[in-house]
């Protein structure tokens, strides 16, 4: 998929989740009839294209981000595809990612 074709999907994901907390990454994404499992997540302070990637703190079986003073965007990444799901998690206080199967979520 060309980069320009990804932007409408990214925009829809951001708009659909603006103001929503808690939020979870989907456990999988179906693309062209194939199921792609959630394998990683990143958290950004501001839109991901600004590249302000936040560093998590390891907390047992998960990585944890405290969100005081940030404008959090959770980016969900899937096995075998470049497509991501981006969630603008306004109002979330903490996000976590890890465990088996992999999951990523934010909560108040």
From TrEMBL:
Keyword Signal attached: yes
Protein's organism: Lichenicola cladoniae
UniProt keyword list: Signal
Name of the protein in its database record: Uncharacterized protein
N-terminal signal peptide: 1-23
Superkingdom: Bacteria
